[in-house]
Predict the structure.
Amino acid sequence: MKNLADIMKQAGEMKSRMEEMQRELDEMEVEGVSGGGMVTVVINGKGVMLAVRIDPSLLKAEEGEILEDLIVAAHNDAKGKAETLVAEKTQGIMGGLSLPPGFDLPF
């Protein structure tokens, strides 16, 4: 039973690290760009958009559709970067936990 106690201890430690990571994700800022830097989007680690910066040359009525596309592209760029950072952090947290096959954590 010592092995089960060790697993539960590891699970508790991992839960604490995951809670800390959630706080870090709220504070993390990831920048995505498109249009050669003409549009920049900033999101947090959870994908919530925090800011948008647009080059003034795109603020013309005839550039509306292009601007919309660039905002979407910049957001997707930032989201991809954020997902990569989250995966790296999660890998670091999960890396030390040795669970038996089929063992699910309660969180």
